[in-house]
Automatic annotation (TrEMBL):
GO terms for molecular function: electron transfer activity; metal ion binding. One of its GO terms (cellular component) is plasma membrane. The keyword Glycoprotein applies. It comes from Populus euphratica (Euphrates poplar). Residues 25-126 form the Phytocyanin domain. Keywords: Copper, Disulfide bond, Glycoprotein, Membrane, Metal-binding, Signal, Transmembrane, Transmembrane helix. The chain crosses the membrane at residues 141-165. The keyword ATP-binding does not apply. This is Cucumber peeling cupredoxin-like. Residues 1-23 form the signal peptide.
Length: 166
């Protein structure tokens, strides 16, 4: 019996580790600085720094003064601070889910904010939407589910055998 319980403990730990490995990251854009007209134009570029954005992560834009977030669709629009197409969110906090690989462009459309550097480019995966979606999270989730099921079945068997034996 002791051996079986050890095995179950191992499985529970394995499941916990897998779930930890697949946890989705919620990024607060600009961290404590939030979403604002930055002191220098490379502020958000620096914030992105070496971050590795993955499918399933999300971005949260927080602001207090008058701002908004427009997701523009091309680098050309982004570079020109074009306030035309795209998803506009004007209530803080504004959350964007990163649902697939690609390069995402966000700007503020208020006044000259974007021109002053209130803009950020987020690269998810390899930055290209034409690449096959990352299957790792799904595999992990599936494996995790299987291990959870095994754990439950094993626990039931232990329960059943103790019932039969004693
Ligand atoms: Cu703004």
């Amino acid at each position: 019996m002791a051996i079986r319980i050890d095995w179950i403990v191992f499985l529970i730990i394995a499941v916990a580790l897998l779930e930890g490995a697949t946890s989705e990251t919620k990024y607060k854009v600009g961290d404590d600085g939030g979403w604002r007209v930055p002191d220098n134009k490379s502020y958000y570029e620096n914030w992105v720094g070496g971050k590795k954005f993955e499918v399933g992560d999300s971005l949260e834009f927080n602001w207090t003064d008058t701002h908004n977030v427009l997701e523009v669709t091309t680098k050309t629009e982004y570079d020109a601070c074009a306030k035309t197409n795209g998803i506009l969110k004007d209530t803080s906090p504004a959350t964007f889910q990163l649902t697939k690989d690609g390069t995402y462009y966000y700007i503020c459309t208020i006044g000259m904010h974007c021109d002053f550097g209130q803009k950020v480019t987020i690269v998810v995966g390899n930055g290209s939407s034409s690449s096959p979606p990352t299957s790792m999270p799904n595999n992990h989730a599936a494996l995790s589910a299987v291990l959870s099921t095994i754990t439950i079945v094993a626990a039931s068997l232990v329960h059943l055998s103790s019932f039969l034996l004693y």
